[in-house]
Design goal:
- With 661 residues, the protein is mostly beta strands.
- The chain contains one helix and 56 strands.
- The strands form 13 sheets. Strands 1, 2, 3, 4, 5, 6, 7, 8 and 9 form a nine-stranded antiparallel sheet that branches. Strands 42, 44, 45, 47, 48 and 49 form a six-stranded mixed sheet that branches.
Length: 661
């Protein structure tokens, strides 16, 4: 084999290559790749050295190579957390190779990125980044205050990256941390300062309020804005400008407190967060003034209403939850002097006062509690008149029930009237007079002996002794004969009218029935048609002659009488008849029937035919010339009065006599 021969320098070994890694803070593992062929029985040793400035190298202990691996022992004074240059060469039985390549390495132990934060008034949380896998723990150093010295506060296990320190009493701390192994200690991490921010951790309570809830107790409420208080110091002054003293320390997270044993009328409170030796600023001052008025507890919505001629019902809204009662004050006149009528129980909301003799009273009420009292409610006035109690009768209606009798009905809105006065006027502009007084609770009354053609107007009012309501609405009736109708169609002096015309007139006011008269003379000494009791405003007339002048008139009637006749209209009928096509066979279902014989009903304007169906027995059908429809009848209903008609076989059609206008 070849080696560096001191005698013959031309004989030498090739340079090996290697890689290295720290196994721990005391052992560096070097993996070697040999490039020379050397017998296995030749001892192999690793000679290595390091430099922190790439100039001054220091030797490391020699290491035996086994299976191309060497374990180099790191001395205690070996530098940590700085870059160093590492190089090595091999010794083959004393023959040494040149130095191989160099490696830049670092033995990293020191943690970094240390942060410290107060999490309560006496605890700090530390966080850092562990840059090494070689440490066996971390030492935490603490400096208290600006002028303190760093002292070891705590040692924590390896591989953790945070810790919390408690039982702190100062407001400023500075921290450093180092990693440790059994043989060495890293440099210190960065310094981190934790400042206790009282304004954040012990915030001032907000929205502090105080309100009396009885004559001896008040309820306090506030918003807890702090996350680290141990409690709240409550301070009190028995007067808005008096001296404050600490009353009690309340538990942490409290947001309300009820204080009892209060004897004065006004108290002022303030509150602050506390925790061990620290405290917040005071909250706003909350003043509790014992007056029901001050905490919006005066009764409200006071009403008063007479419910009889000597009693009134009072109601109000109870806005207090700690009154001992209510004082009711009364004045017998809207502007008279008030006096305390009665003290009512707590929680009352209504009272009926009796023995009233005047017509108007004013009431007011206040809550009381021992020696304290609220302000008065609104003044409620009770005026004894049905008008004041909205009890006037309503919905008055008057209607005839016969030719001389009428019925009145109304709604009774009063619960304490002695009766109802019915007033009447027998003319649209006439004066009213009291017709009759009917008993209390009456809702209707019948009146007789009414004359025709007179308008009657009625109104009603409730009464109680000498007091009266306002009048109801006015309801009027008039016993009137209908007005004369006016004629409409045919127009006066019309010509060329059918011999079966329909006469039309306009409706008359209040008419129930009509009488229609038709005559061939204008003096109506005889009648072609004279019919009363007609309920419609039109009527068809039959049986008139051709080429004739007729006169007609109408009157209207109801239960009170009959109107005068309308003005007289005249009309002239047509002069002749002619053949006219009435119906084509195409309008008769010839696919089912054979036409055998025919008849014309002049009265009803119908063409009848005896029908023999294709199969089965025959029966009668007719074509309605007015409705233009075909109707089937049984044979038993064949009419006896057959008119004049012809069947045109040549043209397959029916023709007959029909009036032509």
């Amino acid at each position: 084999y070849s080696f560096n021969n001191p005698v013959d320098e031309n004989i030498h070994h090739s340079e090996p290559t290697f890689t290295s890694i720290f196994l721990s803070d005391t052992v560096l593992i070097v993996s070697i790749t040999e490039t020379s062929i050397v017998p296995d029985n030749i001892e192999r040793r690793l000679l290595s050295e390091y430099s922190v400035n790439e100039t001054d190298y220091k030797n490391l202990p020699e290491a035996t190579i086994q299976n191309r691996i060497a374990k180099v022992t790191i001395p205690p004074d070996f530098p940590t957390d700085v870059n160093f240059t590492f190089r090595a060469r091999l010794s083959y039985g004393g023959n040494i190779t040149p130095y191989t390549q160099t490696e830049t390495k670092i033995l990293k132990l020191r943690p970094d990125s240390l942060k410290s934060t107060f999490t309560s008034d006496n605890s700090v949380k530390l966080q850092w980044i562990d840059r090494s896998s070689l440490e066996t723990g971390f030492e935490i150093f603490q400096k208290e205050g600006k002028n303190g010295e760093f002292k070891l506060r705590k040692t924590v296990p390896a591989n953790i990256q945070q810790d919390t320190l408690i039982s702190l009493t100062d407001t400023l701390y500075e921290y450093q941390i180092s990693a440790i192994t059994p043989t060495r200690k890293s440099g210190y991490s960065n310094s981190s300062t934790a400042i206790y921010q009282q304004s954040l951790l012990l915030a001032v309570p907000e929205n502090f309020t105080a309100q009396f809830i009885s004559d001896e107790s008040a309820k306090l409420t506030w918003v807890d804005k702090s996350s680290g208080e141990a409690g709240f110091d409550l301070w009190v002054s028995n007067g808005n400008t008096g001296d404050y003293y600490k009353l009690i320390t309340l538990p942490a997270n409290s947001q309300e407190f009820t204080i009892g044993g209060l004897t004065d009328a006004i108290y002022a409170f303030k509150l602050k967060s506390v925790n061990n030796t620290r405290q917040s600023e005071f909250s706003n001052i909350a003043v509790a003034e014992f007056a029901v008025l001050a905490n919006s507890s005066a009764p409200s919505n006071m009403t008063a209403e007479f419910i009889s001629d000597q009693s009134a019902k009072l109601t109000w809204k109870d806005n207090c939850n700690f009154e001992s009662g209510y004082e009711l004050w009364i004045s017998n006149g809207n502007t008279g002097d008030y006096y305390n009528l009665i003290t009512l129980p707590a929680n009352s909301q209504e009272f009926t006062v009796g023995g009233l003799t005047d017509s108007i009273y004013a009431f007011k009420i206040k809550a009381v509690n021992n020696s304290r009292q609220s302000g008065y409610s609104n003044v409620a006035v009770a005026e004894f008149s049905v008008l004041a109690t909205s009890s006037a009768p309503s919905n008055l209606t008057a209607s005839y029930i016969s030719t001389q009798d009428a019925k009145l009905s109304w709604t009774d809105n009063c619960g304490f009237e002695s009766g109802y006065e019915i007033w009447v006027s027998n003319g649209s502009t006439g004066s009213y007079y009291n017709l009759v007084t009917v008993p209390s609770d009456s809702k209707q009354y019948s009146i007789g002996s009414l004359t025709s053609q007179t308008k009657y107007s009625f109104k009603v009012r409730a009464k109680l002794n000498k007091y009266y309501s306002v009048f109801s609405n006015v309801s009027s009736i008039e016993k009137a004969i209908p007005s004369s109708p006016s004629l409409s169609s045919p127009v006066n002096a019309a010509t060329g009218q059918t011999v079966t015309p329909t006469l039309v007139w306009n409706a008359s006011t209040s008419a129930d029935t009509y009488t229609l008269q038709v005559s061939a003379n204008s003096s109506f000494t005889s009648y072609v048609y004279n019919q009363s009791g007609l309920t419609g405003i039109s009527q068809q007339i039959t049986g008139l002659s051709l080429g004739t002048t007729y006169y007609w008139r109408v009157s209207a009637a109801n239960t009170f009488g009959t109107s005068s006749y309308s003005s007289v209209f005249s009309f002239v009928t047509v002069n002749s008849l002619r053949w006219e096509l009435l119906i084509s066979s195409s309008n008769i279902p010839s696919s089912k029937y054979n036409l055998k014989s025919y008849g014309f009903d002049k009265t009803k304007s119908r063409i009848y035919s005896v029908i023999k169906p294709v199969s089965g027995s025959g029966y009668v059908g007719y074509f309605d010339l007015v409705a233009k429809t075909y109707i089937s009848l049984t044979a038993a209903n064949w009419p006896s009065e057959l008119g004049d008609f012809l069947y045109d076989f040549t043209n397959d059609r029916v023709v007959g006599w029909r009036q032509v206008i």
